[in-house]
Amino acid sequence: MKPNGNLTTSDKEKATVLNDFFTSVFTAENPNNIPNIEERNFESSLDHFVINQDTVEKYLLLLNGSKSMGPDNIHPLIVKNDTKIYAPTSKSDVLQNDLDALYDWSKLWDMKFNVNKCKQIHYGRNNPENVYTMNNIDIIKDEQEKDLGIIFQNDLKFSQHISSKINKANSILGLINRTFIFKDQYTFLRLYVALVRPHVEYGNTIWYPHLKKDINAVEKVQMRATKLIPDIRHLSYEERLKVLKLPSLTHRRRRGDMIQAFKILKGIEDISYERFFTVISTNTRGHNWKLAKPRCNTSFRLRHFSQRIINDWNNLPVEVISSKTVEAFKISIDRHWESVMYQLRN
Fold first, then answer.
1. pTM of model > 0.85
2. What CA–CA distances, in Å, run from 266 to 54, 257, 279?
3. How far apart are the C-alpha atoms of 62 and 255, rounded to whole Å?
4. What's the domain of life for this entry (predicted)?
5. Which ranges constitute the DSSP H helices of the chain?
């Protein structure tokens, strides 16, 4: 609102009003009143004040990645996390120019990259696999890379990641079995849910298994785990799950996809849903958030998150889709899928 009481109508007027307000709040400093500080000689030096690489790296890890850039115009994410650059193969020259610019920047700020630790990975069948350099040194080509705890292979099959997580979960199960002599249902559930299951669920929206061997291998972790309870060891796997009220891992992944889709479509996640889905308006029975199912020319595209969830999402009833919060959606979808939560359905 302007000082005369009229409302502002343009971005320029809004900026002017805000500028005038902040100017009135903060007092401008008169440069003529800044005192001159005389140069002083110190008799002793700070011999205990030592700066080394380990100390600098320690404080860099403590940087808050959500903060803005400082006076040096360097974003905290650049110095805290691994730097990643990507581009389509048609723009290989642009990617090389970016690498050169990045190295020049690191050299200017005395934060040089260790080229021997840098890697390049190529995706796609028809990828020419161009060789990229940094400081005129060829970057090592690799077939897989771990990023945010997930191993990405150049064929995007995630078999290595699934295998590593299964091995980790099984090793923890073995540790639990050797450590706890008495294992009732209550103790098992607390240990399994807290220590084992997260290893085979973290990031599964990305590495969602589609091969039968991978699906069975992941599920066998929970099969083995539920057999650790003597009282129900003689029951079938599905019966053991019902006794423990523990959904199958296959169902958990399906449920997780629906929750992620709900967050994206309802604007809870800071992601534009148009990047993943096309909402269609229809007069048929059902909810108003039905998604269009485009044609997929490859099985890889068909397995993508934005494609595999469409049938399940479109078949959800109105009362589930109309949930106001994520917690309400979880309760509603659990009630709707109560009869299938223990089944080994993909």
1. no
2. 45, 14, 12
3. 35
4. Eukaryota
5. 11-25, 53-61, 76-80, 92-108, 159-179, 185-191, 204-207, 212-226, 237-244, 249-265, 299-302, 305-308, 310-314, 318-321, 326-336
